[in-house]
Write a structure and sequence with these properties.
Blueprint: H1 14-32, H2 37-55, H3 61-81, H4 91-104, H5 109-117
Length: 118
């Protein structure tokens, strides 16, 4: 993985290792959910969006939950406006995604805040 991501000459970094692990586990979870390539891409965008809200925007847990809700709603509305041709996520998949984020990131929100700002 280090070679693929071109991390061969970097000093070991706990922060980078944690982020690589989180992205890798998220990707594998989405693959296990049998997401299509488009769904997988949207899921990874959501994952990145939430992490950027913590790292760059320093959002609180409540604000980030609201942003996730807004982003998931926009994904559904965009899908509806396009005539339903791109069925990003079913209701069951959307619930599973929210559960994934709650159990993998939001439950440990303070630890991720510390990772980025501690």
């Amino acid at each position: 993985l280090e070679e693929f991501l071109n991390f061969t000459r970097l000093k070991p970094s706990l922060r980078k290792a944690i982020l690589i692990d989180y992205y890798s586990v998220g990707f594998l979870w989405a693959k296990e959910m049998n997401f299509s390539p488009v769904q997988l891409s949207v899921f990874m965008d959501l994952l990145n969006f939430i992490l950027e809200n913590i790292s760059n925007k320093r959002m609180t847990l409540g604000d980030n939950l609201k942003e996730l809700e807004r982003a998931m709603t926009e994904t559904r509305e965009t899908d509806s406006e396009q005539g339903g041709d791109l069925n990003f996520f079913s209701i069951e998949q959307a619930k599973a995604i929210i559960d994934y984020f709650v159990n993998s990131l939001f439950k440990y929100y303070r630890a991720y805040e510390y990772l980025f700002h501690g």
